Known about the structure:
- With 547 residues, the protein is α+β, with helices and mostly antiparallel strands.
- It has helices at 2-11, 25-29, 171-178, 211-222, 225-233, 263-277, 339-351, 388-400, 532-544; strands spanning 48-54, 57-63, 82-89, 97-105, 112-117, 125-132, 135-136, 140-143, 154-160, 183-186, 236-238, 295-299, 303-307, 323-324, 356-360, 379-380, 406-410, 416-421, 433-437, 447-448, 464-479, 482-490, 501-509, 516-520.
- Helix 3 links the parallel strand 9 (154-160) and strand 10 (183-186).
- The radius of gyration is 23 Å and the shape is globular.
- Bound molecules: fe (ii) ion (FE2).
- Fe (ii) ion is lined by residues 162, 189, 243, 412, 414, 440, 443.
Amino acid sequence: METTTRRTALRTGLAVGSAALVPGAILLDQRPSAAAVIPRSDPFTLGVASGDPEPDGFVIWTRLALEPLAADGLGGMPSSTYQVNWQVATDERFENVVKAGATAATPAWAHSVHVEVAGLQPGREYWYRFRLGKHVSRSGRALTTPALASSPSSLDMAFVSCSNLPAGYFTAYRRLAEERPDLVLHLGDYQYEGGGTGIGRQHAGPETKTLAGYRQRHAQYKTDLDLQEAHAVAPWLVVWDDHEVDNNYADDLADRPVEQPGFLDRRAAAYRAYYENMPLRRRSVPAGPDLDLYRRSGWGDLATFHMLDTRQYRSNQACGDGYKNCPDADDPTRSLPGFEQEQWLLDGFRDSRAKWDILGQQVFFGRRDNNPDPATTTVGMDAWDGYRASRQRITQGWVDAQVRNPVVLTGDVHAHWASDLYLDYDNPTTPVGSELITSSITSGGNGYDEADGTHPWAAWNPNLRFWTNLRGYVSTTITKTEMTARFRCVPQVTVPDAEAFTRATFVIEDGVAGLQQEQAAPVPQLRSSRTDEQKIADTIASETHTS
Ligand SMILES: [Fe+2]
């Protein structure tokens, strides 16, 4: 009944509530949907999303698809341009619609819809939805950020990474959605490029290399109802890692020489499909193999999010990638974000007025030395450990700029970790920042827990404060006095609907760099009997595999 009412209201041109608030909206809404024939079945199979919030608005997204798994990547849509209507309301029932309009969904952009909604009030909740003919999408919840000069008291933010569909069910996304955060950060590996099968779910199509393939892959992921819930609950700030394109690629270099011919065309296809399927602003419309992704987002004077792209501009991995003792990792002419983005970040530290400066990025920032001998440093070449001069410039940058509370957020490694950050990892005396690393949503499968939450490497890497090899996400509460991080875990991903629990809680106090542990709650039956050597092998394997 509710549905009928909503649909009728939409069909009759937003004649509910505050139509008077949106002059012009009714005219727009009643415009016929071009010459295209409205499909009979529901075209909103991929859900809705919002992103890149600002004080006056956000992006709302959807993509029309009748057959999401169509191999040509076009979702079974006729090759017509459709006018898709949209509404933004201050209430969940859309009784008070404050913005509305229509926008074109074209076959050239795989019938994706991106609307930059503006003119909204800062620091409040909204709901949005789309309509095509008689079909109305589900609604989504979005928030505008507080005004730049305002002083919000708190922010609930969750961050995630590494959702590999064949590796398991995306239950962690659903549990995250149930917390109704204000903001979600996706730190990369939103989808995986491989073909292959998994635990009952499998990727449609072979390894993604073409625009059709990437579009089909994105569409398949977006059909996941747990993922749809997470998108619909809050605006997302997304940045990618490698698997949105190709395992461990670096700028214009493919992972393996055999994949190098035509790699920039592949990157262009992947970037285009990424834009089409993410709630990104027009500034991120790709131009060939280039997509402008790194950006800042503020939450009043409470937090600034510096969202980094550590793939598109990076120097090649030193010493051929992998875990190496490699002097080239110290070469100052190499950079992980690229020198332009590095400078942008350093400028951002200097200009920041925020209480919390948060880096949303992909790969491990703190040191993780695999070799207990202090004279030898064997570390991952794909992470900041493989770009040590670059890491040093950034760490020194926030020290020089007297950044009040630098916090690095990380994905990629398919395990929860927490790390203090130092200027000199050989002499770790006083931390200068903190790093929170989220596990994967599914990558790596079920995983296991560890009684004391300690990785074997912590014995000679004192910055490493916590580790569990379970899947999950991190939910945080950020206030003027502290940032609290809850490491949320699901016991398994091979069955749907697992309950989530908080494995550990860390607090960072305002003005006190470094992590303070509040709570640890291991689940005895999830502990493994794996030896330290096996755990280290698991860690390295999970970070160097192609998925
Ligand atoms: Fe990953």
